[in-house]
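quick one if you have a minute, typing this from the bus. theres a chain ive been looking at and ive put its sequence and its fold in token form underneath. please have a look and point out which stretches look like helix strand or loop to you. anything you notice is useful, everything is just below.

***
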Amino acid sequence: MDLPFQITEILERLELTGFSAFVVGGCVRDFLMGLSPHDFDITTSATPAETKRVFADCRVVETGIKHGTVTVLYKGISTEITTFRVDGGYSDGRHPDSVVFSRDITDDLSRRDFTMNGIAYSPKRGFIDPFGGENDIKRGVIRAIGDADKRFSEDALRVLRAVRFSSVLSFEIEEQTARAIRAHEGDLRKVSVERILAELKRLLCGRDVKRVLLEYSSLFAKIIPPLGEEIGFEQGSKYHDRTLYEHTAAAVENSPPTEEMRFAMLFHDLGKVKCKTTDENGECHYYGHAEISAELCDEIMRGLKCDNSLRERVVRIVRYHDIPVDTERKYIRRQLAKHGAEEFEDIMNAHIADDSAKADFCRERIPKIQEVIKIAREIAAEQPCLSARALAITGEDLKPYVPPSPLMGEILSQLLSEVVDEKIPNEKAALLERARGILEERIQK
């Protein structure tokens, strides 16, 4: 296993002073999966005080001294070094009430969450894998170390971590571990929303997200209760051949794997349950569902303490996810003026993901949506005037004809609309002439 030279030297220094030391956890797992590790955590038989003495010539920060962790700044990198330990009870469902330091690496590995994360490595001692983590990685299996119920009781976030790993890595969750997840999913109420959001972001961008959403639907219903209303909800429409929740899961997986798109498709139809109507032919309709979905989306993402930038972008995609699709340049220019190039493409991608999760005949519209995206990119590349800031005139240019007033704003708005529709060129002389014409039209009225 290739390690950065600083990590190798840290391990060697600990070993040379009589202690055993290993890299552990995610970096070892990633290496065994053929991935390039980026973060390296070190565990050692040295106590924090002993570690500080070993690195007396370095800056050492007591970042988690209560649990045996110090951070060593060594030759340009910052590395956490934690003493082998055995954890006491977890009365808060998050942190151990006490820890006992150990000299045995197996003690330390036994307190970790999953077998694939319970592997240690050192250049001197090789791989230490007491729970069969390497074999589980080869088989694509997520298995709790020891008693699964105990592992999830210790830290309820492990419930969501297991599902996140399953989505991202396309690993199956072992049967006993899966049963324990379902038994402890309600414990997520003990976990801060910030930690839940961080896991959700990664989970939703996983390549196997649809399977995970369907297999653990009750878990997601507990995190986001409005999703629970979608489970088993028959849509009663010729456009849909699956339940609302099944449609949502498929739409999520069919969208680009970005946080904004995955969250948008998770929330895009939340409002349907609240606005379902049935016509005389028994066909169901969901008028206004996009707006209701956007309001619910905003509320949920605020509750998860999502950053404003992501929340606002997701809400807008949800609000406009079912606008008409039209290949006419005038229509596309207007939409680009309203949404901007990136957001409009997100909205069109939402259309594609939505149609991909409907009845087969709905997918016939996808090439048309792709053509809209192509035309929109071409228009954007021309850098057209699509905002008031890009107009070749400003309010200052209009002052000889009209004083600063609501009327001036209305004239600028009309000029922009006509430029967007390509009725007049974005040239100062042409705009001033048209402004005078608009004023004359107003006077005549």
Remarks:
- Residues 428-444 form the longest helix (17 residues).
